[in-house]
Structure formats: structure tokens, C-alpha cells
Task: inverse folding
């Protein structure tokens, strides 16, 4: 049920982190992939790795906040592959600050990347999924879509708001496009080491000790562990699941 042979997956924010890990999982399951992000050099390096594994991997430079860039990127993907079966809307940013300190620019950056980006990429992918009567869309939200934290290191009100909006958008899309055999679900990663956390949260032994103590599984997430639920939502294993949200946080949000 997790087989993706012959499928084409588009991954935004594919240059690192969850996007890169998901692209590897897609290829391992048999899919070909289009890798979208702003940093083309990193995309090309990942594409070479995936080609060596036997996949057709297409790197495409794309700024998900710019409609012209998104339109051109999706056109390039369709020209190359002829179809899009899976869309992982993963591109995202986390801007620190509460409403008392966050600038309008910081607020807009969170909303533009985390919400507008999903809207724009979906806008140009969904019509093709409707035409082929098949599609699997996975939107990356965050555990911080449903919980907040009073620790200064976690105060990111624009991030909270934008990731909560992702859930609303996911449910709206799921309700509208189910009749076309398109499922739309979301995942909410907790603490994983990434470019956003490597030089901040993961630099603090005190923070990691406290986090591990309160997390039921006793540790942050390991590279690749976030890809399993993404693969589930991207495959026919989830053929009767839509509009749902799965948190990937080792149980931290339940205690």
C-alpha cells in the first residue's frame, strides 16, 4: 500500500530537513521527484544523490512566495514528467518574536512562506490533479499549530498563527477536492534537528535535557522519522483519510 512506483512527487523546501528526507523516502518507495527550493546548488546535490539511487530527480529553483516563480516551476515539472501525483508543501520559516517585538516584516515573512506558499503551489498543481482524478497533498504544519510555549526560545507568534492557518487551509482543500479523488492532509513535526534548530535549540544542552525529560519518548526526533507519516499520507495506504492532522513529536504535546 506504500508503493509509489510510477508516481511523481513535488517537494517544496526540498533543499534540506524534512523536504530532503521526504524526497529520499519517496524515491525509496519508487517515485520520481521534482525538488523545489530557492537554493539550487543544494537541490542539484540532492538530485544527484537520488539519481544515483535510480530515480528521475528534477531540481527546480522556486520561491514559493512569488506567483510567477511558482507558475514557471510547475510548468517545468509538468513539461518534464507530464503529471503530478503527490505534492508535499514543506517550505517554511520560523521567525522569533511575540506580538510585542515582532516586526511587520517578520509577521509577513511567516505568513507569506508558510501559508501563501502553500496556496500558490497548490493553485497551480490542483487543476492537474483534478484533470487526472487523483492526487495526494500533504501540508507541513507544526506541533506549534495547536500548542504554544512560554519559553523565550519558543516565542514565535507569527509562526503559531501561520501554522494554525495551514490546518484550516488543509481542511478546506480536503472538503472541496475529495470528489476528485484528491486527499489533503497535514503533518505537525515537533523538535527535529534542522537548519532552523541546529544552531539554536540543539546548541543548548540544558534545553535538550529538559525537553528529553518531558518528552514521553525521551528524546528529540531523529533524521528521517518525520518521513514515515508523510509517506503514509502520500500513498494509497491513506486512500480513505483526508482532512487529518498527525503530530510527529514523540508525544511531547500530550504531557
Result:
Amino acid at each position: 500500500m506504500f508503493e509509489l512506483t510510477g508516481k511523481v512527487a513535488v517537494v517544496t523546501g526540498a533543499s534540506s530537513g524534512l523536504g530532503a528526507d521526504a524526497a529520499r523516502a519517496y524515491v525509496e518507495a519508487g517515485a520520481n521527484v521534482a525538488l523545489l527550493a530557492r537554493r539550487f546548488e543544494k537541490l542539484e546535490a540532492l538530485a544527484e544523490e537520488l539519481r544515483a539511487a535510480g530515480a528521475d530527480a528534477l531540481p527546480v529553483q522556486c520561491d514559493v512566495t512569488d506567483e510567477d516563480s511558482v507558475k514557471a516551476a510547475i510548468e517545468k515539472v509538468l513539461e518534464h514528467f507530464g503529471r503530478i501525483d503527490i505534492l508535499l508543501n514543506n517550505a517554511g520559516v520560523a521567525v522569533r518574536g511575540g506580538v510585542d517585538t515582532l516586526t511587520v516584516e517578520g509577521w509577513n515573512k511567516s505568513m507569506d512562506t508558510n501559508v501563501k506558499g502553500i496556496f500558490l503551489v497548490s493553485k497551480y498543481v490542483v487543476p492537474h490533479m483534478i484533470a487526472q482524478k487523483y492526487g495526494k497533498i500533504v501540508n507541513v504544519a507544526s506541533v506549534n499549530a495547536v500548542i504554544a510555549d512560554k519559553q523565550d526560545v519558543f516565542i514565535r507568534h507569527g509562526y503559531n498563527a501561520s501554522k494554525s492557518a495551514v490546518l484550516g487551509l488543509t481542511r478546506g482543500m480536503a472538503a472541496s477536492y475529495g470528489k476528485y479523488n484528491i486527499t489533503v492532509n497535514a503533518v505537525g513535526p515537533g523538535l527535529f534537528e534542522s537548519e532552523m534548530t541546529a544552531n539554536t535549540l540543539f546548541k543548548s544542552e540544558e534545553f535538550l535535557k529538559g525537553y528529553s525529560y518531558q518528552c514521553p519518548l525521551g528524546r528529540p526526533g531523529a533524521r528521517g522519522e518525520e518521513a514515515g507519516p508523510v509517506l503514509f499520507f502520500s500513498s494509497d495506504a491513506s486512500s480513505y483519510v483526508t482532512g487529518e492532522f498527525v503530530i510527529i513529536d514523540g508525544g511531547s504535546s500530550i504531557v
User: Anything to note?
Assistant: Residues 8-254 form a domain with the Rossmann fold fold (CATH 3.40.50.720). The longest strand covers residues 182-189.
